[in-house]
Design goal:
By secondary structure, the protein is mainly beta. The chain contains six helices and 22 strands.
Length: 417
């Protein structure tokens, strides 16, 4: 999917992002898109200027440690024999905690058993809850998120995770925000702070300070979903004016791989209506449990502006749990390798014209990163990682995703012919 021009978006609506823009044929995609695996945490040592030496094609550069990713999605790869460094994931528990002296964690609940009695929630274990009962149950847990950036004001949605004010939303809803506020379902407005964001998974956690306990959502196991079962979405499509709108449909597919800005995300597909402003809202199963965070819509084609109806996508909550817990505890996703580079694919026409090899080109090197110390330069082409050839961004990412903090990786580059 290609990113739509920012200028086309009305200021009052949620800002367009790769997760909310028309999808186009690959022929129309932008030639170069930056990518990475996180920004390197601040380093205590002072950066030094690497020596600018000429290297031949296929050269493996020196030993280099790679720090764990921090808040933003801005890193990429490293060079030479790389030792991946960083922090281990912490707080992977499954029991929610709302006490003031401990950070809450997201609790995943199984769907009701066939012999269970839950009349307070009007469960029918065969058919689930009625739509009106689902709305009454979940609506108080869904908020509108208003984000003010240098470009203007936009809005999205959010899901209350804990009664003390932790709220889940999409990264692209609060990305670049100078201030964030939240409107509760009863119309109350509260200022919010950004606790942590992760561009790679498009997840974010914000926090408000309520005067009384909020209504936290009940979260269900997205791994238990089956295509064909009923699903509902609650959010603010079109902005705060249409806050707390419910739409209904079916789970259309599970484990649907969707390529967004050269990132492959595994999402839930639904035909419950999802529009701009739904981003960060709730996808709900037939038992009134939040099973996904709505984030995308397929809305165009390669040859015109015709809308594709009934193809919305949500981030599975069971996969999001570890990320969200980490964001609350650390403010970033710990344990993810960071290589200190921003890279992009080389357009085929450029590659043929300049006689470049297959690979990904380095757009920039983060100052103070291990790639910086190893001597990688913007313009270098990464051709191979370890024993595996790199021909595109998917190769690059899949190889790095299999690496762990502390491992070493030999990286081969093409430079100056």
């Amino acid at each position: 999917p290609a990113q739509a021009p920012q200028s086309e978006q009305p200021q009052a609506e949620e800002p367009r992002t790769p997760f909310q823009t028309p999808v186009q044929h690959p022929e129309f995609r932008q030639a170069q898109q930056q990518t990475g695996f996180g920004e390197v945490p601040p380093m205590s040592q002072k950066p030094h200027t690497p020596k600018n030496k000429k290297h031949s094609r296929g050269l493996a550069l020196g030993l280099c440690g790679v720090a764990a990713a921090c808040l933003l999605f801005a890193g990429g790869a490293v060079v030479g024999n790389m030792a991946f460094g960083g922090n281990a994931n912490s707080n992977s528990g499954t029991t929610a905690s709302d006490s003031s002296d401990s950070a809450p964690t997201l609790q995943i609940n199984s769907k009701p058993e066939s012999d269970s009695s839950n009349s307070s929630d009007n469960y029918d274990t065969a058919d689930g809850m009625a739509g009106e009962d689902i709305y009454k149950k979940v609506n108080p847990s869904v908020v509108s998120v208003i984000s003010t950036t240098a470009e203007g004001t936009g809005s999205g949605s959010g899901v209350i995770m804990s009664k003390d004010g932790y709220i889940i939303t999409n990264n692209h809803v609060v990305d670049g925000a100078q201030s964030v506020s939240v409107q509760l379902s009863d119309g109350t407005s509260l200022d919010a702070e950004i606790i942590g964001t992760d561009e790679q998974t498009d997840l974010a956690v914000i926090k408000v300070t309520p005067t009384s306990d909020l209504t936290a959502a009940e979260f269900g196991d997205s791994d238990e979903l089956e295509p064909g079962e009923y699903a509902y979405a609650i959010g603010s499509p079109g902005g705060v004016q249409f806050a707390n709108t419910i739409t209904g449909g079916r789970i259309s597919a599970i484990n649907r791989d969707l390529t967004v800005n050269d990132r492959v995300m595994t999402l839930i597909q639904t035909d419950a209506s999802i529009n701009n402003g739904n981003s960060g809202g709730a996808l709900i199963n037939k038992y009134g449990q939040v099973v996904g965070i709505t984030s995308a819509k397929l809305s165009g084609n390669a040859f015109g502006s015709a809308t594709v109806e009934g193809m919305g996508f949500a981030i599975p909550i069971s996969e999001a749990k570890t990320i969200l817990d980490d964001l609350i505890v650390n403010g970033y996703v710990s344990g993810r390798v960071s290589l200190g580079l921003t890279v992009s694919e080389i357009p085929e026409t450029y590659r043929r014209f300049w006689g470049l090899p297959s690979g990904v080109v380095i757009e920039s090197v983060t100052a103070g990163s291990n790639a910086y110390y190893a001597g990688l330069h913007a313009g270098d082409v990464i051709c191979q990682l370890g024993d595996s050839a790199v021909t595109n961004l998917n190769d690059y990412r899949s190889i790095l995703s299999a690496c762990h903090v502390g491992e070493e990786l030999r990286v081969y580059i093409y430079r100056d012919g």
